[in-house]
Design a protein that fits this description.
Elements: H1 6-30, H2 39-57, H3 65-69, E1 72-76, H4 84-106, H5 117-122, E2 124-128, E3 149-150, E4 163-169, E5 175-181, E6 192-195, E7 203-204, E8 215-220, E9 223-228, E10 235-237, E11 240-242, E12 247-249, E13 254-258, E14 261-267
Parallel strand pairs: 3-5, 6-7
Antiparallel strand pairs: 1-2, 4-5, 4-14, 6-8, 8-9, 9-12, 10-11, 10-13, 13-14
Helix pairs in contact: 1-2, 2-4
Length: 268
């Protein structure tokens, strides 16, 4: 997981604030609302911002337009989408972050997971990258893959190959697809290495969240396993974090997070 830092989050907030205020101003103009004291405008501004952030951050975007533009998203501690209830609580907790000259916001620059005070209260993270909720897995062509990262072997004895496919988005929003055959001999030998180093990795992914040698896919009997090779940003399987240098059975369906990329897993 790659955490979004203070300045990136601040820039997204400025974009969202301007956008929300412009929308509110248009509402006042369209409905010819007059506010002599400014009290109504202040109240509507607070309510608008709370609804705006709550609805967008709990949506399939997991981000407001400002965050989406800067390619960051709000998640729970496992990197998954948050509920509308948690989003509502998170944005109420912003009030506490804004007290004492905004110290709760400044905490983002100094905490390990770049969490503001309101993130710590409701257990949320702000991560770099876009979610893969919009990804249509059934659009992947298993017979003629056009993957950016592909491992292919010849068919054995005319028997239909069992192909595994994983697809997700990198931090720039580009689709990353990985495919490999169950009968690939490397799975029974040293394994198939996934990493950023194009010289040593069998599956090369150039995203900054991926370590030089991040993970190893290998086969035990009739099952595929994945091992963390001491990566910096870790591996999660269906939201559960794998320990550093730990191993886990790879499910035939579900999600696999490698670094900052969330892959949807499928098997033909």
């Amino acid at each position: 997981m790659i955490y979004a830092g203070f300045w990136l989050r601040a820039a997204a907030y400025v974009i969202d604030y301007v956008f929300a205020i412009v929308c509110l101003t248009l509402v006042f103009l369209v409905f010819s609302i007059k506010d002599e004291t400014g009290g109504l405008a202040s109240l509507l501004s607070i309510c608008t911002m709370w609804i705006y952030f709550t609805l967008f951050e709990s949506s399939k975007w997991q981000a407001t337009p400002g965050k989406r533009l800067l390619k960051i998203r709000v998640t729970d501690l496992s990197g998954s989408r948050i509920t509308i209830g948690r989003a509502a609580a998170r944005n109420l907790a912003r009030i506490l972050s804004g007290l004492l000259l905004g110290i709760g916001y400044i905490m983002t620059a100094f905490t390990d997971k770049k969490q503001a005070l309101h993130d710590q209260i409701v257990n949320t993270l702000v991560l770099k990258g876009v979610p893969n909720n919009d990804f249509a897995f059934d659009q992947i062509d298993l017979e003629n893959p056009i993957d950016s990262s592909v491992v292919v072997t010849a068919e054995s004895s005319g028997r239909k190959r069992q192909k595994w496919v994983m697809a997700g988005f990198d931090s720039d929003g580009r689709v990353i697809r990985i495919s490999f055959d169950f009968d690939d001999p490397r799975l029974l030998e040293r394994g198939i290495i996934i990493g950023r180093d194009s010289k040593t990795a069998d599956i090369h992914i150039g995203d900054a969240s991926i370590s030089r040698n991040h993970a190893r896919l290998f086969r035990l009997d009739q099952e595929i396993w994945i091992e963390d090779l001491g990566s910096t940003n870790g591996i999660s399987i269906s939201g559960k974090l794998l320990s550093s240098q730990g191993k886990s059975l790879l499910p035939s369906r579900g999600t696999l997070t490698i670094g900052g990329i969330i892959f949807t897993i499928g098997r033909d």
